[in-house]
Amino acid sequence: MSRLPTTTHTPLLWEYAPSREATDLVEIEDRYGLFIDGEFREPKSGRWFDTINPATEEKLATVAEAGEQDVNAAVAAARAAFEGPWGRMSSTERSKHLFRIARMIQERSRELAVLEVLDGGKPIREARDIDLPLVAAHFFYYAGWADKLEYAFPGAKPRPLGVAGQVIPWNFPLLMLAWKLAPALAAGNTVVLKPAETTPLSALHFAQIAAEAGLPPGVINVVTGAGETGSLVVTHPDVNKVAFTGSTAVGKLIRSQLSGTGKKLTLELGGKAANIVFEDAPLDQAVEGVINGIFFNQGHVCCAGSRLLVEESVHDRFVDKLKRRLATLRVGDPMDKNTDVGAINSRQQLEKIEELVESGQQEGAEMYQPDCPLPSKGFWFRPTLFTGVSQSHRIAQEEIFGPVLSILTFRTPEEAVEKANNTPYGLSAGVWTSKGSRILWMADRMKAGVVWANTYNKFDPTSPFGGYKESGFGREGGRHGLLPYLDWSEA
Amino acid sequence: MTLAHASDRSAILPDRVTTPTLRTFLRSVPSVDEVGVAERVASLSTRSIKKESKRAALDLIVRMMDLTTLEGKDTPGRVAQLCAKALRPDPTDPSIPPVAAVCVYPNMVRHAVSCTEGSSVAVASVATYFPSGLADTKLKVEETRMVVADGADEVDMVIDRGAFLSGEYFKVFDEIRRVKEACGDAHLKVILETGELATYDNVRRASVLAMAAGADFIKTSTGKVTPAATLPVTLVMLEAIRDFHDATGVMVGMKPAGGIRTAKDAIRYLVLLNETLGEGWMTPEMFRFGASSLLNDVLMQIRWLETGRYASPNYFTKD
User: In this structure, how many other beta carbons lie within 10 angstroms of the beta carbon of residue A101?
Assistant: First the structure.
C-alpha cells in the first residue's frame, strides 16, 4: 500500500496580513514656522501652505512660505553664525557637533522614517532600511572629516566659503538634506536650506534635532516654500555657494541666474540611466537589479535605471522574467512593512508620469502593467514596462521620474555603449555580465558619473556621486564631496 | 523560453547524454551572483508576517515537515517515539495536523512503517550510502530497492559530490537516473549537499542536473555538513526549479534541510517560496522542511498565537 499522502493538499494562497508601522511615534504639529537663527518663526511673508500625505491626500500640517524678508533674515543669521560662534569654533568641536547629530538621527530614526513616509509616500521598508541608515552614515562620515581637512588635501590650506544656499528635492528629503548639510558643515560653512514644498516636514524635524544637539543658532536655517523661495535663496547676494538637486530645467535656470556672480555652484540634476544586461549575466540577479533600479522609491530617483538595454539573444526570456517579477511587487499603503512600491509623491508628478506613458503608447511601444489593486485615495501608478521602445521615443529620452521602464535591445557591446550614451544625461549606468573584462571595457566607455557592475542603486557616504552633461556637475559624497564647500585660493 | 508541451524532462537535455554534452549543457545554465542573492534574501527576510497569515504559515510548516532522526544511536524505540510525535505533534491540541513524513535511516524503515500504518504520515528513508554517497552505484541502487521494499514512500538520496566537482557529470546523472528507476512509485529527493559544492554556480548546475535526471524534489543537505540549508542557497535552487518548470513543464519540489530551528526562520523560507515559485508550490507535495527541533518551536508559536502567552518548553514533548 502506498502511504504517500493520498489527500491532495490545496496549495495555500498566502496573503500577508497588513503590518503597519505605528504612526504615533511621530508628533506632527499643526503649523510649522521657519527655522531661522535657532528658533521657529512666523513668516514675515504672512503666507502659509499645506503639506499632504500623498497616499491618502489628507492634510498633515500647515507650513510657512518664506518670502524675501524671511530669506534675508535666514541668510543674515547664517552670516552672523559664520562670522561668530561657528567660524570661531575649533574644528574638533565642529566635528563633535556633527557626531552628536548623527547619533541623534540614529536614536530617532524610527520617528524620522515614519515622517518621511507620511509626507513623501515612500514605503516604510525603504525609509527604515535605506534612507535613515544612509542619513546617519553621511553625518558620521563627514563628522570624521571636519577636523582633518588639512590632511584631506595635502599641501592645501582649505577654508570654508561662508554661507551655502541649498535647495533639495522631494524624492529623498532627509537623505538629500544629509548629502548637502553634512559636507557643508564639516567644511565650516553655515547653511540656508530650502526643502521641497511637498516634503518639508523631515527637514523641520531635523532642525529641532540640530537645535537640541546644541548647534549654535544660525548655523542651519530652514526656509520652506516653493520655487520662488528657492530662487530667493540661490540668488541672494550674500550667499557664497549654491548647491541644487532637482530637475535639469531648474538647474539650467539657476546656472544662468548665477553666471557672473562669483558664487560656487554644484548641480545634481536628472538622469535617464541605462541598465545593460548581457547574455552571460547572472539573469535572476539581473532581474532583481533592474527591478530595484527602476521601482525603488517609485522610480523617483535621479539615477533610476529607467532604460533597460538587453542583449537581443536573451530579450524574450529576460522580459518574461521581468513581467513575472513585476506581478509580485506589492503596491499600496506605504506604511505597511510589506509594501514594495508606495505612493507617487504628488498629483503634479502623477500627471507628468501619465502624460509620458500616454506618449509611449501613442508612439507605438508596447505597455505591460501587472493587474494589482490600487487604493482609491491618493496618487498611484502601477509598475510599468514598455517593450519595443526606440531611441527616438520620448519614453527613451525624457526623464519620467516614475515607475516606468523602457526596454530596448542591442546586439554588440559597441551598440550598447552607443545607445547608453545617446542621451543628454550622464548620471549613472549599470552593467550586468559575468565577464570581468567586459565590465571594465564598458565602464571606460560609459559617460556616466556612476557605473554599477552587477548591482544597482548602491550608495555609500565614502563614494562620490554626480553626473556628466545635463545631469549636472560637482560630486557629493567621499572626499570629493568636500571640495565644493572649500576655498582653495591662496590666503 | 517557450513552455514545452506536457511535461518532458528530456526537453532540455542534449540528444546524446555524455559527460561532454552535459558539460556544455550545464554551462548554459545562468550564472549566479552571490551578492545579488544575499541582497534579495535580506530584502525578503524583512517581510512582516503577522496574525492570520502567521497562523496559516505555521500550520503549513507543520504539514510540510519531514520530522527527522538520523543518528548513529537511533533505535526502533526512538523511531517509534518520533512517529508518535509525527502523527500527533501536540498531544494537548488535536487541531494541530500531522507532519508530512518521518525521515529515518534504512534500517529503521520497517519500524517507521509499522508505526505510521494507516495514517497520512509518509516514511522517507535516506539512501545511497548516506551521508557520504561514496559507494558503488550498484550498491546504492540495491539499497534503494531495499528501503522501497521495506515500505519507504520517499527516498532521500545523496549525489556523488566528488564526481560532480571533478566534472564527471554523466556519472552523477546516470546514478540519479538509476536510483530513480529503483524507486518505482516512491518519490525521489536528491540531496546536493550544497555545503560541499561551495559555489552557487555549482548549486544551480547540480540542481538542473538532478532535475533533468529525474528528481521529484531537490534537497539542500544531509544535515551532517556545515553549512546545511541557508536562505540564499534555497533561493538559488528555487530559481533553478522555476527555470526548469518554464523549460519542461515539470514541477520539481524543494526541501531545505538542516539548521532550520525556529518558526521565524521557517517563515522566511516560506516567504522565499511564495515570492519565487508562488502558490503552486505552497503545499507539502512541493515543499518540505527537513528538521528535528523546528517542530516544537512552531508549536510554541501556535500556542502563543492562540493564548497570547509563551508556554514553557516543558509543555512540549521532546522526541
Answer: 27
Conformational region of residue A349, where left means phi above 0, alpha means psi within -120 to 50, and beta covers everything else: alpha
Q: What ipTM was estimated for this complex?
A: 0.94
Instruction: Check which CATH number belongs to the domain holding A192 and give it.
Output: 3.40.605.10
Per-residue model confidence (pLDDT) at position A353: 98
pLDDT in tens, B236-261: 999 999 999 999 999 999 999 999 99
Q: Closest Cα of chain B to A362: distance in Å?
A: 29
Q: How many domains does chain A have?
A: 2
The answer, yes or no, to whether residue B2 has pLDDT greater than 90, is no
Map residue B213 onto helix, strand or coil.
helix
Residue A16 falls inside a structural domain:
no
CATH of the domain at B229: 3.20.20.70
When CB atoms are compared, the residue of B30, B50, B53 closest to A282 is B30
Catalytic residue list of A: 268, 302
Q: What is the predicted pLDDT for the residue at B5?
A: 47
Hey, which residues 99-158 in chain A have their CB within 8 Å of chain B? 125, 129
B250 in a structural domain = yes
Question: How close is the nearest chain B Cα to the Cα of A313, in Å?
Answer: 11
pTM for this prediction: 0.95
**Is A285 in Cβ contact with B37 (below 8 Å)?**
yes
CB A86, CB A188: distance < 8 Å? yes
Distance CA B62, CA B93 (A): 13
Query: Do the Cβ atoms of B223 and B68 come closer than 8 Å?
Result: yes
Tell me: the pLDDT tens digits for A59-72? 999 999 999 999 99
The answer to whether A22 faces chain B, any CB pair under 8 Å, is: no
Residue B8 in contact with partner chain A when CB distance is under 8 A:
no
Of A125, A316, A455, the CB nearest to B36: A455
